[in-house]
Design brief:
Length: 120
């Protein structure tokens, strides 16, 4: 008959439990992930200030909502279409690719010449 040697390895609760990472390491990992997937933040300064802002065709709010105080228009990775428009003005369209930094975009809409539907 063969003898089988069985080795049992025991570990204490502290030794086998998953070690908690320090907060500084968790923050460093998050910063590295952001660097690999850059996002952007656009501060918009518009005339008129109540023009509507669209990001990739989706309404985001009024231009005055994204002046940078307290927040700008947040965009994710990739190339994005920014459109600013208001009735009675020619629309403005541009493209922005996030670089991980804050950018400022100054937009001055031009009147179409016929302000139908307004009481000015």
């Amino acid at each position: 008959m063969r003898k089988v040697l069985l080795t049992v390895v025991l570990c204490g609760a502290a030794a086998c439990a998953k070690r908690q990472e320090p907060d500084s390491l968790v923050k460093a990992r998050a910063l590295m992930a952001e660097a690999e997937n850059p996002s952007g933040n656009l501060a918009l300064l518009c005339e008129p200030t109540d023009a509507e802002v669209y990001l990739d065709g989706v309404w985001q709010g009024l231009c005055s909502d994204f002046t940078g105080s307290p927040k700008g228009l947040g965009v994710g990775i990739g190339l994005h279409q920014i459109e600013v428009k208001k009735q009675g003005y020619w629309p403005y369209t541009t493209y922005y690719e996030a670089s991980g930094a804050r950018a400022r975009l100054t937009i001055r809409l031009r009147a179409t010449g016929s302000q139908t539907g307004t009481s000015e």
